[in-house]
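Hi team,

As requested, here is the filled-out complex form for the heme C run. I kept the field names the same as last time so the parser does not choke. Let me know if anything looks off before we queue the next batch.

— J.
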Amino acid sequence: MGRTLFLALGIFLTIACSVTGLVILPNWQFQGLKPVTKKDGVKYPMPYFGDNHKGRAEYISHGCIYCHSQQVRMKGYGADIRRGWGTRRSVPRDYIYDYPHQLGTMRTGPDLANIGARQPSRDWHSLHLYDPQITSPGSVMPRFYYLFDEVKQGESPRAGAIKVPDGYPNRGSVVAIVPNERGEQLIAYLKWLNQSFPLPEAQQ
Ligand code: HEC
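And here is what came back:
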């Protein structure tokens, strides 16, 4: 009986310490985090809205997280800042509107926490998502061609179309592409990702 009690107490303490350390303390520490406002009135972070909100759902449903993280490690913990993935480390405040968060654990591709600052071009994102081989030959990233309408040779031009480069080997009769609704939303989300706002708790 004495042993059973000892064992039960051990199990209880293990679970209690884990819940306290991993759930209760972090919640208590971070639940009061609010956006900060600069002198000019600009607030950061801002809640997702409209297209970038819907694009976030596309990002989740396409499983981009299985190859991309969204967290910049501080200097001394990796080469993230040297690689140009951000100007400062990521901190909890960056994620107060991020639910479910997309921190990720895999880095088959580059970190995307600041892709909106690094690559703000709709045309670049369109060509890259349509076929990564156009912008990044040799890339292992899959094609997301179904997020685009194709404009073939002889078809009338369309507003907002992006020309597919002549030298692209799989070009076939496709002369241009136009992001469809889901494509525009995903691109809006990618352009929104930007943690370059200076936060007092992330000076490095
Ligand atoms: C199988 C792994 C894989 C998946 C899944 C994947 N990517 Fe990538 N991604 C990569 C690799 C590798 C690169 C680097 C080469 C390149 O630019 O294509 C990359 C590059 C990128 C870049 C350019 C980053 C930069 O710094 O230039 C963006 C933006 C991007 N991916 C977005 C996405 C989005 C959005 C999704 C989901 C719709 C996605 N990726 C899914 C592997 C992946």
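Two things worth flagging: The pocket of heme C is lined by residues 59, 62-64, 66-68, 108-110, 112, 115, 118-119, 132, 136, 139-142, 144, 186, 190 (CB under 6 Å). The chain has a mean pLDDT of 94.

Thanks,
J.
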